[in-house]
Amino acid sequence: MRALVISGGGSKGAFAGGVAQYLxxxxxxxxxxxxxxxxxSLLISHLALQKIQxxxxxxxxxxxxxxxxxCPFVIQKKYGVAxxxxxxxxxxxxxxxxxxxxxxxxxxxxxIKNTITPEEFDILKSGPKDIVVTxxxxxxxxxxxKSIKDYGYxxxxxxxxxxxxxxxxxSLVRKEGCEYADGGLGSMVPIEEAIxxxxxxxxxxILHTEVTHFNRMPSKNAFSLLTSMFGFMLDRIERxxxxxxxxxxxxxxxxxNFYYTPTVLTxxxxxxxxxxxxxxxxxxxEFAKTKNVELSSLEPEQ
Length: 302
Hints:
11 helices, two-stranded antiparallel sheet, 8-stranded mixed β-sheet, alpha/beta
C-alpha cells in the first residue's frame, strides 16, 4: 500500500504540487492513500482525481482575496522583501463582530467548494482510494484525521477548510460541539498516521528545508512576532513528526521517501504571490525529477 503525505506550508503548497505532479505523471506512482495537513489537504483530493492541471491552475492564480474574507494584515515590501503589517481597521472590525481571531478565511471555503464539485466528491468517496485531512481539536486537545469515507460533501469541504485555518490569523471553526483549527498545530507531517492506516511505502513531501538555512529578521510588529513564534513551534512539531514517523516506519517495515524543499522558498507562507507560486510549482516538478534521476544513477547495476 503506497501513501502520499503532504505537510502544511501555506503558499509553499505550490512546490508540493509540482513534486506530486512528477511523482504521479513522471514516475507513474499510484497511491492508495492521500493524507494532507493544511495546504496539503487542499491538494490531495485533486491529486486523487488525477486532475493535476486543475489544482495547478488554482495554486498559480490565488491571492490574498481568494483566501481571506477579512484579511488582518497588509503586505509591506522593502528592499525586495515582503513583510506583514497589521491592518488595524480589519482587526478591530473582526473583534467588533464578535470574532475570536484577527481575520476570517470564509473565501477559502467558497474556493474549496468551487473547485471540488459534488460529482467529483462522489467519485472519490465511492472509489478505492482514501483521502484523509488533519485537523486540530482545540476543545479536546487532540489531533483528528478526517476520512472522505466518513462524511458527506458539505462536511468534508469544511474539514478541508478547517485543516487550513491558521489561527489566530484565520477562522476558528466550531463544529460538532468543538473548536477546530489548522491541523499543523498538532501534526504537520502525518507520516505516522499513514503507516498506522496500512501504508508500506510513503512519499512524504516536506515544505521545509532539511537543514535550517536562515536566521529570521527582527520582528517589526506584533504580527511578525506572532508569525515568527508560530513558525518556530511548527518547525519543532514538524521535526518531531518526522522522527516519530521514522521510528514507526522502522517498527512496521515501511519505507519513507522524503522530498524536502532544497532552498528556503519564503519566510512567510501567509503571503500568496501568484508569480512566486507559479515558479515554485515548476521548481517542485524539476526538483523531484532531478532527485529521482540522481537516485536511479546510484542504484547498482543488475
